[in-house]
Amino acid sequence: ARLPADDRRDLGELLHFPADTAGGRMTVDFIKVRATDTVEKVISRLRKKGPDPHYSSILFVTDTRGHFEGVMEIDKLLFTKPKTKIREISQPYPVKAFLLEDQESVARNAENAEVPIVPVVDEQDKLRGIITIEDIIDVIREEATEDIYRSGGVGEQTSLFESPARSAGRRFPWLFVNLGTAFIAASVIGFYQLTIESLVAITIFLPIVAGLGGNAGSQTVVMVVRSLALGGITAADAWRLLKRQLLTCLLLGLGAGAVVAVGAVIFSLPIIIAPLVFLALILNIIIGGVVGTLVPMVLRKFKLDPSLASSIFLTATTDTLGFLVLLTLAHLALRFFPELASITFKLF
Predict the structure, then answer these.
(1) Which DSSP symbol is given to 236?
(2) Which tens digits make up the pLDDT trace of 61-70?
(3) Could you tell me which residue ranges the CBS domain spans (predicted)?
(4) How far from the centroid of its chain's Cα atoms is residue 38's Cα?
(5) What one-character DSSP code corresponds to residue 152?
């Protein structure tokens, strides 16, 4: 069956634009009235047209050349004198989108303005279509899903039920990158092999220091990436945000370090272990907070997706520097107190 001429024209209009832009998301099924029309003329037109468009309760007002001016609710027509011009009873609209504007930006602006619909205009500010609340919700859901997949290094098209070979192919590249960063962290352990042999008890706390630093950084990454996506922060906020995160992570480090240090004493580990782990945890949690704050903002600055690569940089940094900090402190302790090398321990 052939599409009606109007539908073919509308479909052709939408196919001109990428699917993830305002032009690709918009519908051309709406009611447009001229600001110079009278109320009685608009009512007459609406009676002939019938309740076809999705948003027949809202009228979109343009000038005689099609430039967008504002909106009005259809029920105003019932309480206004017939000869009144539409311009006199219409009102400006707080948000609009351009044809090639990214759909995420459109959804964010609609959310911030708390509006159920977004008019779409071209470069000359001529009204070309509208994006409805249903499409706005779809965009928010799609972008949130995309961010979740990317933060885990998994492609958007990945499915739990796709073939194992294809799923592995999609996921392997990021695992390969993580493998490379793991080798860097392992090389730090290899460099301090003699230190580890002299103070074996320190190895118990390597995954703790690295893990807590990574977790603290991950919390920061999630908040920063989300705020960037919603437009809540910009590059201008970097220094102020960094100072707050430094203080927050210092407090987290003090708390976590104290708990782990007490644990070291309870399990009768060498007494020198407690202050070493305490300092290492504080430093690595601060490192995690700094990396979690700056990396997403730097990636956004260079037009890269913060949700895709932030976790990789974070894991590499907190693992490598966590090992480095703790083992360096242990190495210095052995230099100043060589008798520590003769201490043995038994955890259980």
Answers:
(1) G
(2) 999 999 999 9
(3) 88-146
(4) 47
(5) T
Query: Which residues sit opposite 67 in a β-bridge?
Result: 126
Distance from C-alpha of 90 to C-alpha of 55, rounded to nearest angstrom: 16
Structural contact between residues 277 and 201, judged by C-beta atoms closer than 8 angstroms = no
DSSP structural state of residue 268? T
Tokens of 170: 């999609």
Residues of the chain with CATH 1.10.357.20: 166-342
Whole-angstrom CA distances from 230 to 144, 206, 226, 250 are: 11, 36, 6, 27
Strands 117-121 and 68-73 turn out to be unpaired
Q: How many Å from the N-terminal Cα to the C-terminal Cα in the chain?
A: 78
The CATH class for the domain spanning 166-342 reads mainly alpha
Q: In angstroms, rounded to a whole number, what is the distance separating the alpha carbons of residues 306 and 151?
A: 8
In this prediction the pTM is 0.68
Cα dist from 294 to 224, 280, 341, whole Å? 9, 21, 39
Q: What is the CA radius of gyration of the chain?
A: 30
3-state secondary structure of 129: strand
pLDDT tens figures, 224-261: 887 887 677 877 788 888 899 899 999 999 999 899 88
What does the block give as tokens for 314? Answer: 């974070």
CB 300 within 8 A of CB 241: no
In this structure, is the dihedral angle defined by the CA atoms of residues 233, 238, 239 and 242, taken in order, positive or negative?
Answer: positive
The token duo for 345 is: 């321990």
Question: From the centroid of its chain, how far is CA 39?
Answer: 46
pLDDT in the model for residue 157? 57
Between CA 59 and CA 76 the distance in angstroms is: 10
Nearest by Cα to 54 from 24, 29, 28:
29
Parts of the chain belonging to CATH 3.10.580.10: 5-149
The pairing of strands 97-98 and 117-121 is parallel
